[in-house]
Design brief:
GO terms for molecular function: hydrolase activity, hydrolyzing O-glycosyl compounds. This protein is mainly beta. It contains one helix and 18 strands. It is globular and about 45 Å long.
């Protein structure tokens, strides 16, 4: 469950020498982010992972059973170094996940720059919005839901990434999903926009998912989580040169939250 939190203003400042680049800084007016392309304005919360560890006031690091009770989510699987947060999943199902305490609101936009290592398809890198109250996913009365705006299960991390939108009840779950090809071993900016009119997903500033079906929209406040989930029964197609027994990683360069339209 994602703890609810109060969004606080955080400016993102990047100072670069002429001709230099920094993977943690998106240039002003960068059309490869949805925020720049569609004018989302200044973020109400932002994280660039500049410290040596996650600030516990801003991040809840999981410590307990893994997805569906399989494997384990350990704080030791989450590290911060040189402006990048890395979640590592190992052969035995020990992996990690985090929830952004500052990243909760009803409606709004979220964007993150991420990349993944080639590795076992049994590890699903996931960026998702999760209800801050009443548990997550579909429920007997259907008051919740979830928005998975990045998820993939492919050894080479070069096949389609998926967008999943879950709603409805436990007995009558409604799902909207679509896929887009991308080389996820390279840095990409993924974003989601959630409004009263619908939900859209973006890859490097271009929309690739949208639904205006209001029955699919979550009912309440949602928070941002970042997870590397273990599905031990999934093996997938083996990509050339992939060592399925090697650790799998999900890396996050930066993440930002934008306020809903006023």
């Amino acid at each position: 469950m994602v703890p609810s939190g109060t969004a606080r203003l955080s400016a993102v400042v990047c100072v670069l020498a002429v001709g230099s680049t920094a993977h943690g800084c998106a240039a002003r007016g960068d059309a490869r982010t949805a925020a720049a392309r569609f004018g989302w304005g200044r973020p109400v919360a932002a994280e660039d992972f500049r410290g040596r560890s996650l600030d516990p006031r801003d991040w809840d690091v999981y410590d307990g059973p893994g997805h569906a009770g399989k494997g384990r989510r350990s704080p030791r699987a989450v590290s911060v170094r040189e402006g990048v947060m890395t979640i590592t999943g190992r052969r035995n199902g020990t992996t990690g996940g985090v929830a952004w305490r500052r990243g909760a609101q009803k409606y709004g936009r979220w964007e993150a720059r991420i990349r993944m290592s080639r590795g076992c398809a049994c590890y699903h890198p996931v960026l998702l919005l999760w209800p801050t109250r009443g548990g997550g996913g579909v429920t007997p009365r259907g008051e919740n839901g979830e928005i998975d705006y990045v998820e993939t299960a492919d050894d080479g991390r070069r096949a389609a990434t998926s967008f999943f939108l879950h709603a409805g009840t436990a007995r009558n779950e409604r799902v909207r999903d679509t896929r887009v090809p991308a080389d996820l071993t390279r840095w990409h900016a993924f974003a989601v926009s959630w409004t009263p009119q619908g939900v859209s997903g973006y890859l490097d500033g271009r929309r690739w998912f949208h639904t205006g079906d209001r029955r699919m929209l979550p009912a309440g406040e949602m928070g941002q989580t970042i997870q590397l989930d273990w599905f031990p029964g999934e093996r997938g197609r083996t990509a050339r040169g992939v060592d399925r027994d090697a650790p799998a990683t999900l890396q996050i360069d930066w993440i930002r939250m934008y306020a809903p339209d006023r």
